[in-house]
């Protein structure tokens, strides 16, 4: 990240971006590569915590088409579609989900195509990570 907002140190610019609601992040990602990197960074999540701009969102998995994950923002009454899980499995079933410290854990389950490499996926606000048991 460098030069997020001309004339401002990146730390200050990041705090400015921290005030932007999550539903606008996909639009802000289109501004430039440095903004996209900032919006996907752990630093932004920490800055959002520091400035108190975390949001309560309900996460829902619609099974059709292909396990589409959506976030519901009850304050704004809008649905936000998040990218597909980075997995070859397209139809999950019988899985558990829990949210801890700003991360969404998708645990276990089965599917019509077994994906041995992804037993648990961690969804962060705009990034994914894998954990193998």
What is the topology, as strand order, of the major beta sheet?
A: 5-6-8-9
Q: Work out the helicity level.
A: 10-25%
> How many strands, which pairing sense, and closed or not: the largest β-sheet?
4 strands, antiparallel
**End-to-end span in angstroms?**
33 Å
Percent strand = 25-35%
Question: Can you walk me through this structure?
Answer:
The structure is a single chain. The chain has 133 residues and is of the alpha+beta class. Helices cover 23% and strands 28% of the residues. The chain has helices at 10-18, 25-28, 33-39, 42-51; strands at residues 58-62, 68-73, 78-81, 92-93, 96-100, 103-107, 110-111, 120-123, 128-131. α1 packs across α4 (42-51). The chain is elongated. Residues 115-123 and 125-133 have low confidence and may be disordered. This is F-box domain-containing protein.
Give a short summary of the structure:
It contains four helices and nine strands; from the N terminus they run ααααβββββββββ.
Task: Provide the fold topology.
Layout: H1 10-18, H2 25-28, H3 33-39, H4 42-51, E1 58-62, E2 68-73, E3 78-81, E4 92-93, E5 96-100, E6 103-107, E7 110-111, E8 120-123, E9 128-131
Antiparallel strand pairs: 1-2, 2-3, 4-7, 5-6, 6-8, 8-9
């Amino acid at each position: 990240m460098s030069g997020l907002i001309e004339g401002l140190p990146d730390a200050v610019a990041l705090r400015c971006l921290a005030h932007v609601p999550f539903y606008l992040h996909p639009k802000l990602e289109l501004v430039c590569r440095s903004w996209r990197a900032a919006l996907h960074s752990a630093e932004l999540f920490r800055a959002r915590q520091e400035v108190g701009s975390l949001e309560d969102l309900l996460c829902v998995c619609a099974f059709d088409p292909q396990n589409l994950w959506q976030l519901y923002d009850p304050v704004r009454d809008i649905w936000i579609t998040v990218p597909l899980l980075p997995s070859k499995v397209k139809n999950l079933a019988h899985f558990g989900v829990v949210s801890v410290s700003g991360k969404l854990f998708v645990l276990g389950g089965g599917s019509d195509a077994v994906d041995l490499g992804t037993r648990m996926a961690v969804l962060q606000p705009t990034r994914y990570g894998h954990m193998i048991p």
